[in-house]
Amino acid sequence: MSVFSFNNAIVRTPARSVVDGLRAGDHAGPSAAGVATEHAAYIVALADAGLQVTTLPPLEAFPDSVFVEDPALVFGGTAIILNPGAPSRAGEAAEIRTELARQFAQVIELDAGHADGGDVMVTPDAVYIGLSARTDATGAAALARALAKIGRTARIVTPPPGVLHLKTGANLIDEDVLLVTAPMAAAGMFPGFDCITVGDGEDAAANALRLNDWLLVGAHFPRTIDKLAARGFKLVPLDTREIGKIDAGLSCMSLRWQA
Ligand code: CIR
Predict the structure, then answer these.
(1) pLDDT tens digit string along 9-31?
(2) Phi–psi pair at 192, nearest 5 degrees
(3) In a 3-state reduction of DSSP, which class is residue 228?
């Protein structure tokens, strides 16, 4: 079974408060209607790729709660409840626990530090954990211990400063192929991988999402799309311009696993 085999996903309907989602710059936030439209199209794309989608209700108290990838990490049979590093997001872990306990035979809690799922990238050989402003060394070590309990090897890496999450800048799109930004490629964290660099001025395109045979990619990154098409990827372009205003991309909006 490949790391891209998925038949289940959890998403959460965006709250109206998503307009107040965290962002690094001081630019305007997204519109609630715009995020809702992008989210609805995303759910269709997950279903079209063969995933059964569980949709959780919106959480107005948590503007970033649409990004369910961050408070947990899931594999077939096991969910690991993480501890998001942004104070405004810490409560999201408790909010998703009940659903994970319902759907997974084993639920493991991170027992120290902070870690966001956006900093976790699963590859065939190892689970990469990126240190960031959200994932600290204590949380990364605790996550590595949790992964060891389920027979997974962790590899802790340090992305360049200023990158929100590991997967903001690097995503596995084939067994040994990464889609990366130029700074991530230059950081030399991924020896042995074939790194495809996103098109000029299209760094946000790096957060693409491989599901089964399909690669979901931001629709407004033409140079990256050309590169990926030339390599033969089966692309599903999706509009991410609204969620992009709060520093998010396509992996952030779901938890995915093979049941
Ligand atoms: C945040 O700053 O936490 C959200 N506005 C964006 C989270 C993106 N999540 C992800 O990359 N996994």
Answers:
(1) 999 999 999 999 999 988 899 99
(2) 90, -10
(3) helix
